[in-house]
Fold this protein.
Amino acid sequence: MIDRGRAPSGALSSAAATVRLWFAPRRIHEEGTTPDYRFTLANERTFLAWLRTSLALVGGGFAVDQFLPHISRPLRISLALVLLVGGALCAVRAVNQWVRCERAMRRGEDLPISRFPTVLGLLLAVLSVVLVLVIAFGWAG
């Protein structure tokens, strides 16, 4: 009998192994061969760029909350929370993507493809349009 309500144990153990690598990156050296250091450094620069994006989102969330007092409180809090949660997700995604890319390079595999940049970009575009409308039409609380 197949239990469709649970993830396969192989997928769960693979996810757990990946999360363990977040906290013990030296274990990555146990896999495959060492790639050209330029690729490892490029992977690290990409990781740092994602962290800068995360910090910008968090800063934007605080800015919306603190510097737009004329907007109704529920709308202001909602917009700020979207930015803050986006910043948190971006930081977690940065760590995960760094590990996935490092493993792929060591194994000689193709780099992992992610929809996260597209989703993040589209969500920020929608949020930006909402903020423009709020400010342009002065939806005060």
